[in-house]
Amino acid sequence: MSVPMTLLGLLEREPSHGYDLKRDYDTFFSRGKSLPFGQVYATLGRLVRDGKIVVGEIEPGVGPERKRYVITDRGATEFESWLTEPVQAEPNLQTVLFTKVVLALMLDRPAEEYLDTQRATHLRRMKELTDIKRGGNLVDVMLADHGLFHLEADLHWIDTTAARLDALRTVVKG
């Protein structure tokens, strides 16, 4: 997740205070890990420094003054470029799952047990995501679907790898 680009997108929608940006970020994008206020304001400071946003009106507040941030043409152009550029196709060919299996085989450790443990972990997470889908709003449902599809692919890979462990052991043991 690109916090600066997400904040630029929220600011393109409308000029906002840091508090409002954090609230909207947490509502739509954080899912379980809220964005710290310090990160919001540090990111806004860098965006101001880089000319991508400016401080608009300043209002008195209960605590410090409340600054309303406004996206600049430069910020809008960079956001548009980021938004329209495709995301790098996943997955990478090197994964932690694969690395652990190969190392387990190289070191004569029980790769089968690792795969079984990983399968159980994936199934637990799939149950959690399925529960979210049952009671969530549309944003939560769509994010849960995304996670479930990736976990399903991982489970397919785990099953295929388990079926090929003897052949892979021969290759890695050379």
UniProtKB/TrEMBL annotation:
The Transcription regulator PadR N-terminal domain, residue ranges: 7-80
Top-level taxon in the UniProt lineage: Bacteria
Cited InterPro entries: Tscrpt_reg_PadR_N, WH-like_DNA-bd_sf, WH_DNA-bd_sf
Matches recorded under PANTHER family: NEGATIVE TRANSCRIPTION REGULATOR PADR, TRANSCRIPTIONAL REGULATOR YQJI
The name this protein goes by in its record: PadR family transcriptional regulator
Organism of provenance: Micromonospora solifontis
